[in-house]
Amino acid sequence: MMARRMRGRGVAASWYGIARTATIDRAGAWAELDDGGTAKVVTGVTEIGEGILTLLAQVAAEELGVRPEDVTLGDNDTARSPEAAHAGATRQTYMIGNSVALACRDARAKLFAEIADHWDVAEDTLRAFNGELWAEGSNLKMTMEEAVAVCKRRGVVPVGSGSFTAHGTGLDPVDGSGSPWQAYVFGTQVAEVEVDTITGEVQVLGIWAAHDVGRAINPRGVEGQIEGGVVQGLGQALMEDYQLDKGHTTTHGFAKYILPTSLDIPEITSVIVEDRDPLSPLGAKGIGEPALVPTAPAIMNAIHDAIGVRITSLPATPEKVLAALKAKQQSEQQRQAAE
Amino acid sequence: MSDFEMELEVNGRKVRRRIEPGQRLLDFLRDDLNLTGTKEGCGAGECGTCSVFVDGKLVKSCLMPAAKAQGTKVETVEGLAKPGELTPVQRAFHKTGASQCGYCIPGMVMAATSALRENPDAGIDEIKERLGGNICRCTGYTKIFEAVELAREVIAGRLNPATLEADPAGESFIGNNVRRLDAPSKVSGRLRYAGDMVMPDMLHMQVLRSPHAHAKIRSIDTSAAEALDGVACVITCDDVPGEDGFGVFVHDQPVMARGKVRHVGEAVAAVAAEDIATARKALKLIRVDYEELPGLFDPEDAMQPGAPVIHDYAPDNIVKHIPVRKGDVEKGFAEADIIVEQTYETQQVEHAYLEPEAGIAYVDADDVVTVISPSQNITHHRHMLAHIIDRPINKVRFIMSPVGGGFGGKEDMIYQGMLALAAMKTHRPVKLVFTREESIIASAKRHPSRVTYRMGLKKNGRITAASFRMISDGGAYGMSTEGVMRKAAILSCGPYDIPNVQIDTYGVYTNNTPSGAFRTFGGMQAQFATESHLDICAEKLGLDPFEIRRINMMRDGAVTHTQQKLGSVSLARVLEAAEKASRWEAGPVGQRGPVRGDLGGEGTRQPCTLGSRIKSADGHNKEKVA
Amino acid sequence: MLTCDTYRLPTSLKEALALWAGAPEGSRLVAGATDILPWAREGRAGDVHLPEMIDVSRVAELCGYEIADGRVRLGANVAYQQFLTDPVLRSHLPCMPYCAVWFADDQIREQATLAGNIVNASPAADGVPPVIAMNGDIEMARLEGGEVVTRAMPVAEFIMGPGRTKLAGNEIVTAVTLDSMQGYGGSFQKVGQRRSLVISAVCCAALVKTDASGEVFEDVRLALGGVGPVPMRLTDIEDMLRGKRIDRKLIAEASVGPADRVASRSRVAYRKAVVSGFVEAAIEDALVELGAPEPTPEQREAAHV
User: Fold this and answer.
1) Which of B73, C69, C115, C172 pairs with B102 at a CA distance of 20 to 30 A?
2) Which of C228, C234, C222 is closest to C258 using CA atoms?
3) Residue B121: inside a domain
4) Is residue A253 domain-resident?
5) Structure pTM?
C-alpha cells in the first residue's frame, strides 16, 4: 500500500537548431535615424507574442544610440516592408534581430561619417547610447536629436538596410548527411511531480529549466518563453489529447480539449546559459521552441521515479497512470504469490 | 421577433439600445458598443477571454444573454482606468512581462482585478484559484502570478508604486529587462486583432465544411444560397482563376475542396453576406452531392499496399520519408552489452491559441488584393495567393495583424484564399472569424508519432548504436509534414555522440485532421522517445540519469547524426546548470522518489488542494467565535 | 449560435409561471443560463432557434434561503458561489464549499445555480451527490386555475437518468431543501483531467458527525457522482459506520464495497479503481474537518493490511 501522494523527480536533455532547417535562411530590414533622435525600423515579420518587437527595439536602440521607446517599428506588410519570411523556427531573434542590427549599423555609419567630419574626429572614436553621442577621448558630446539635425543639415538622411543569412545545407537523400543549421542550442529540465495513487492524477510541482540561448537580449522575455514552453509541454504530457473517431473529432471545444489552467502550473526556475553564437553580430540564438522539448520526458521520468511505472504513450492521464500502477501492483502480487 | 429594449450602465455611462433578444452580452459589447477589449476565445465559457464585471461580479460574457444585463452596471477592461492611464494591476502586468500574444490578457486582467477586489490579501493559492477560469496559452501563467502578487502589494501600500516603473537603462539595452512595448495596448484591451477590425460596407463570411472524412464531390449547387436576400456571393473551387494549391512544402491543398474532400471540416464552399446569421442560413441552402469513399485513419493502414489513395500524386500515401545513416548499426548492436527496445507514442495536439483564425480581405484602389490576418508567414502566403488568383506578386498584399497566439498553427493559408476570392468577386471588404470549434476541426495539429526505438549500450553506459523509426500521421494534406519529418529525423537521437545510427521518419497521408507546424516541428516527439529511452537504459545499467547523459553527450567539435561537425556545444553546461539549480541528488534510476532527499523545498510549489479560501474564512470565523 | 424571438425577465413567480405556461413549444426556461449558450454550438446542438427564453433569475420568490426546523431551503436562484461566500450556508452545509470550489470556476459559479445543476441531471453533476447525501428535496411550482401550486419530492427520486427528471412541462423548480448539517465535517473528492473548469470523472461527497467524545461516528452521509446514470447514495456504508467507534481499518473496509456498483457507460475500470480510495479519503477528510489529525502513511498502510 503506497501513500496516497508519492513524489519523484526526472530529468531530460534536448537540443535544437536555430532558424530554417536544411536550407539558406535570410531576412531583411531597413533602418532610419529620424528627427528628434528617434528611429524607424522596418522589417517584414515580427510579433506573434514572443516579445520580438521589444527585442528589436532594444537591438535598434543599442546599435543606434537611442532609447528603446524612441524606436518605431514598421512591420508585417508585404507591400511596405522588406522580406523577412516567417514567424517560426525559433528564427526571430536570430534572423530578424541580426538583420535589424545590420540595418542599424548601416544607418549609424551614415550618421557617424557626417558627425566625425563635423567634429573633425575619427569615426571610430564615436559612441552613441541612450540618446547621446560623444567622441571618446574628447569632451565633444551632443544629443542624438542634434546629431540627426546636423546630419540632415549636411544633406544626408541617415538610412540603412541589412540582410542576414544563415547558411544551412540540404540533407543527402540517401544518408541524410548535411549541415541543417549553423547554430544549435541545448537544454536540460528537471521535473518534480506528485502522483495521487488514488486517482492517478499527476501534479508537477517544480521544473528547473536550463537553456542555452546564446545571449539573452531580454532575460525576462527569455524566461517568459521558457515558462510558456514548459506549460505547453506539461499540457501535452498530462492532459491535452486531440481525439478522432473515424476522422470526426470528439474534442470539438475547450470543454473536451483540456488545457492547463493556473492550477496546473509548477514553480518554474529558469536558468539562462549563454554560449554566444560566433557567426552572427548579436551572438544570440533562440529559445521559443527548444523550451518545450524536454518537459514531457522529464515529467514521465519523474512519474517513474515516484511510482515505478513507465508511461510511454502521451498523455499521462489520471486514468492511464492509475491503470499502469494497478498493473504493476498486480504483477508484483503475482510474483510474490509465486515466490 | 421582438427586439429587446436594453438599458444599462457600461463603464459608468448610461446606454440604451434595442438589441436582438437572443444576443450574448459579449456580442452586445463588441458589436453594438465597439468595446472590443472583451474577446471571444471559445464561446463556451471555457477560456475567460470575455470576462466582464456585471454588478461588481466577474462573469463570462459569452455565457450571458445580453438581456440578463438589463438594468445592471457592466464594467469592461476599457473601463478599468481612464484613457491613457493604467491601473496597478495593468501596470504590474506590464512590468513583469505577463502579456505575450495578449489575447487572453484583457480577461486575465479582469480576473486578476476581481481576485484582488474580492480579497485584497489573497495568497498565491487563492489567486491561482480565482484565475482558474482564464486560459493563457503563451505565458505559462508564471509572470501573471507574479504580476498579481506585485499589484496586491502595491495596492496594499506594502510596495512603492515606483516598483512598477521601468528598470534603469544601465550600460546597455542588451541584457536589460526592457518592458514590453506592446504591453500597454494589450493590458488595456486597446490592441485590435483581426476579429476586432471593421471596415465600411464589410461583408461577413461563413464556410461550408465537409461532414465526411473522404468523399467524392459529384456536384455543388449554390443557386438557392445565392438567391437568398443579403447574400453577396457564394464561392467554390470554380471561382479560383489560377493554379489552385497551397501548402508549406507541397501545394496539395485547394482553397476549397476540388473534386473530393479528404478530411472532416475541409472547406467546401463559402458565403459572403450582409451579416453572419444570413451567411449561416445560406450555408444550409448549398446542396453538395457526395459519394463517400473508404477512409484511412491510421498511418500504418495507409502504408499498406493496396490502401486507398488520398492524393493521386502520392500513390503510396507517403508525404515524406527522411533517412539518416551514420556508421554501421549492425556492427554497433553487435558490440553492445545490452540492447534496449521500446515503442513510444505521442498524440495529436491542438495549438489552442486563444485567438481563433480571423481575417479581412479587400481590393484596394490600385487593384491590389489585400488580406489582413494573423498569418505567421505573409511572405509565402503572398507567393501562393498570387499563383492561386493569377495576379502579379505586387498585386497581392498580406498584412500580418496582431497574432493572438500562433505556435506554428497560423503558418497554413487555410482561409485567406477564400477571403481574397470573395473580395475579388464582390469588390467589398469581407471578414471571416472562425468559431473555436471551426478552428479545431479545420486547422493543423501537432503530428502524432509512433516510434520504435532500439539502442545498444556497453555496460559502462556508452551507446554503441541506435535505430529509430518514426511513423507519423500527416492527415489529409501535406502542410508542414515534410519539414517536420526532416527536423524529427535530424534531432531524433538527441544531443548524443552515437557512432552508428539508422533513422527513418515517415509522414503519411490519412483522412484525419491534417498535422502541421507546431512549436518544435517534430523535435519534441522524437526527443520524448530518446529521453524516455535513456532513462530506461540508465535503469538497466544502474546509472544516474545525468550520468548516462554525460557519458554520451556531444562535446565541442562533435559530429552530429547528419555528420555535421559542431563548434561549441553547451550541453555539459546546461546539464550542470539544471543539476545544480534543482539540487539534484544523484543515484541510479529506479523508484527512488520515496527515499530521495531533494524533494520539496526551493523551486517547488505546494500541491494544489482546492479551497484555500475556505480554510482561511473558517479560521476567521473560528477566531470570531472564540 | 443561439437565436430567440423573445426574451422574458419575469420578477414574480406567478408571472413566470404564466409566461412559461403560455410559451410556444420549444421555448426554454433559464436561470443562470450558463449551459444553454455552449449547448447551441457546433459539435453539440449546433444553431438553435428558440421562440422564447424565460429567465427566472429575477423572480423574487426564487432568491435567497431560509433555515428552519433543521432544514435549509435554498431558493432556486441560489448560485454556487454563495456556498463559498456566505458564512451561514458554509456552517449549515459544510461539504458545499468544497463541492463549489471544484465546480466550474469563480465566474461561472456567480451565475450557475444548484437547482439548474439538478435539473440538468447530468450523471457527472458535482452538486447532486451532496444534495442527496443531505436528504435533498426539490420543490416545483405550477399554475392551477391561476393559483400557484407546489409539490416536492426527494432529489434522488426526481432524477430519473441522464438529462431526465420528473419535472412536468408546466412546472418551474422553486427550491431545493436540505438537512442542516451544522456540526458535521464535510468533504468533497473529485477527479477530472485537471483541477479547474473540469467535469468529474468521479466525485464523492461525505458528511460526518462524531459524538461528544469524538471517537464514535454519530452520523455519516456518503454519495458518489460520475459512477452511473444517476448519482448514488451509499446508505449501506453509512449504516455500517453509524454508531461505530472510529477506526481506520473499519473505514478502509467500508470503502471497498462501492467499487462494484460503478455502472457508468465508459471508463468503468478507472472509476472502480478510484471509488474505494475516494470513499475512504472523503470520510478521512471530513474527520479532519472536525479536527482529527491527518492520517499518516503508516496509519493508512496499517488500515489496509
Assistant:
1) B73
2) C234
3) yes
4) yes
5) 0.98
